[in-house]
Specification:
By secondary structure, the chain is mainly β. It has strands spanning 10-20, 25-26, 31-36, 44-48, 58-62, 78-85, 92-99, 104-110. It has a single domain (10-118), classed as Immunoglobulin-like, CATH 2.60.40.1120. The strands form two sheets. Strands 1, 2, 5 and 8 form a four-stranded mixed sheet that branches. A four-stranded antiparallel sheet has the order 4-3-6-7, with no helix packed on it. It is elongated, with a radius of gyration of 22 Å. The model is unreliable at 1-5 and 122-138 (pLDDT under 50).
Length: 138
Amino acid sequence: MPTPTKGPHATGTLTVVVHTAGNALPVPGAYVTVSAAEEEGNFSRTVITDESGRAPTLILETPPASASLTPGGARPYAVYSIRTEKEGFYTNENSMVPLFAGVNSVQPVELLPRPPYESEDIQPTQNTDFTSEQQLNS
């Protein structure tokens, strides 16, 4: 009896688009790392967004579309994680992102800016401490 091969046998594509400010502004130069979920394998690739906030489209392995025709069978999609980073912004992580064979999936990512004082090099210089002896409305 032949042993069934484990793993994907088809491909789908993934495009990550990175914006900030409620998707109003693109984030160029963001590092986007796409990794296969643990059960999918050891795939990991990092790409950088262009001036429009768009990362290069990646061709990724998926189960064949025919997997969706068998009730209770294998999951008909692959699962990937997306980590998006850029200096001056909070890191964004998306997990369990589904990818189907023959489908171009577009994953929007919103990065939130960090306040300047949260940088490791720059710390707040003023600290306000209200004690019980001070009155706010004097």
